[in-house]
Q: What sequence folds into this?
């Protein structure tokens, strides 16, 4: 299985595009090696420029829950394109997608569409600040909320401190209102509230997917809700990744904790660039043009993207059990991989939520980012390279989540488990 053409393509791209990629994680940096350049996707598979075929467990980092080239999404997009790519004026397609989202999320009365998850979260934070008339925000170490300035804050050591920027180019002044807490640790959140009486919102991935898959404990979320209520602080669930992936009706439907604002992305666009944020009417009324909190976008509510999102969400809604079926496959996959690892003397921590799966080469369960960093990175890199050679495309970073699409069959899952056994044996014997 050669990858010579990908190597050449990467070299050429590096001449013109920083690092050869338009989003850093794609560069295979944390696993070494060269990224695979893709020509097309078909169902469960990705095909690369060298003619190799891979079972795709990345699914464009989440959006493609029905796999590549899903017929109903593809035809909805083609139909929409025939009417024009963008109008910068309202269309009924936006209202139709809004109806679906509002119908699925109890916490959402009104929703606004944007073009990425980053934009959704950035806007939600502004809305929370505008609504509460406060400046500080709390985020959790290891949660990723896109790359807007105030959310690019270095992971702390669990102590609640005012954060410092994790990227050059972000002035310290811009992050001085961002407090850090430790995931699943309510005491660290209490410390934030002790440090500041100016907290507009607490933002959390209720099912974290950016430190590997680390779902928040239910009890922790309930306590978080209580703390927010006591302090008049809004609770934001960032479900850009977990929305429509972990469950159809949001984390609120499986945890019993209702957030004030929800951010969405990925699946909601069916593979097109879409993000969204929604809340109860009273909060959304603060948003321009109804209210004073400014937010806008040339391509927001783009008709082609709305058509793709509508096709994806309506198909999910009609097939209510899809996410459960995918979970059965996800559970089988990670349990099979864990057993294969155990045969080779390797301990794996595994978890799933709906169509999301995660695994760590860790001795102990993972509850927060600090635990996640104990993953055996070298073993992961070898595993990733070995699986790629066998024709299985897993996320090229330790801290990502895997995704199962409806195009992945039970047989593919069994083959993946067999391949993982082979690869782990090779690694551990070598
Ligand atoms: N929030 C979460 C939870 C995410 O997982 C991501 C992207 N992985 C974002 C926000 C940012 O979304 P985007 O990459 O579309 O800007």
A:
């Amino acid at each position: 299985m050669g990858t010579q053409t990908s190597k050449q393509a990467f070299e050429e791209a590096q001449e013109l595009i920083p690092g050869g990629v338009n989003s850093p994680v794609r560069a295979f940096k944390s696993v070494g090696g060269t990224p695979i350049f893709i020509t097309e996707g078909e169902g469960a598979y990705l095909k690369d420029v060298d003619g190799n075929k891979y079972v795709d467990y990345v699914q464009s980092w989440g959006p493609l829950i029905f796999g590549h080239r899903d017929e109903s999404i593809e035809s909805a997009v083609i139909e929409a394109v025939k009417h024009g790519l963008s109008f910068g004026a309202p269309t009924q397609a936006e209202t139709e997608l809004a109806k679906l989202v509002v119908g699925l999320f109890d916490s959402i009365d009104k929703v606004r569409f944007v073009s990425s998850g980053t934009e959704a979260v950035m806007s939600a934070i502004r809305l929370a600040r505008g609504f509460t008339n406060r400046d500080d925000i709390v985020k959790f170490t290891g949660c990723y909320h896109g790359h807007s300035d105030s959310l690019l804050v270095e992971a702390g050591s669990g102590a609640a401190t005012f954060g410092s920027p994790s990227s050059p180019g972000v002035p310290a002044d811009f992050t001085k209102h961002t407090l850090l807490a430790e995931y699943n640790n309510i005491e660290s959140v209490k410390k934030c509230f002790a440090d500041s009486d100016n907290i507009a919102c607490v933002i959390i991935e209720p099912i974290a997917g950016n430190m590997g898959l680390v779902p928040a404990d239910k009890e922790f979320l309930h306590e978080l809700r209580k703390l927010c209520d006591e302090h008049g602080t809004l609770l934001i669930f960032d479900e850009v990744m977990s929305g429509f992936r972990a469950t159809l009706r949001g984390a609120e439907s499986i945890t019993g904790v209702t957030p004030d604002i929800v951010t969405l992305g990925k699946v909601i666009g069916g593979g097109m660039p879409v993000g969204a944020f929604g809340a109860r009417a009273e909060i959304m009324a603060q948003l321009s043009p109804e209210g004073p909190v400014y937010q806008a976008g040339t391509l927001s509510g783009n008709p082609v993207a709305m058509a793709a999102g509508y096709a994806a969400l309506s198909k999910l809604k009609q097939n209510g059990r899809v996410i459960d079926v995918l979970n059965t496959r996800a559970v089988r996959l990670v349990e099979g991989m864990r057993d294969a690892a155990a045969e080779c003397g390797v301990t794996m921590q595994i978890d799933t939520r709906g169509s999301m799966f995660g695994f760590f080469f860790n001795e102990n369960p993972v509850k927060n980012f600090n635990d996640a960093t104990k993953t055996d990175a070298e073993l992961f890199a070898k595993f990733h390279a070995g699986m790629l050679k066998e024709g299985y495309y897993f996320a090229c970073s330790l801290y990502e989540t895997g995704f199962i699409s409806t195009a992945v069959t039970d047989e593919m899952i069994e083959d993946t488990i067999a391949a993982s056994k082979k690869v782990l044996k090779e690694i551990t014997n070598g």
